[in-house]
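Lab notes, practical 5.
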Amino acid sequence: ANMAIWLNVFIEANEGMGNELAASYAKRCPDIRKEAGCNQFEFYQGIERPDFFILHEEWADEAALDAHRILSQQQGVDNSHLRKGTHHREYVSIS
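Output from the prediction step:
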């Protein structure tokens, strides 16, 4: 059985780059949500710390997540110059 993947990604923007990083995700989120197997893709910006973010993703299965990663690479999406650090926490659904 295919198990859904939940992903929480903790992102810290370079100092003062939070709003620019947020804008880059806001632009991409609608397209990512349309990708096959994407159940949820949300980007949250800290209110008190606007350079801190949580990206919450839910994918139908590992194959959908892999396809998303490949597509992102093919599209040449790179906002690493805006980011200080990125930390992934992956969860697999038990349903």
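Observations recorded by the TA: Residues 6 and 58 are 5 Å apart (CA to CA). The beta strands are 5-13, 38-45, 52-59, 83-92.
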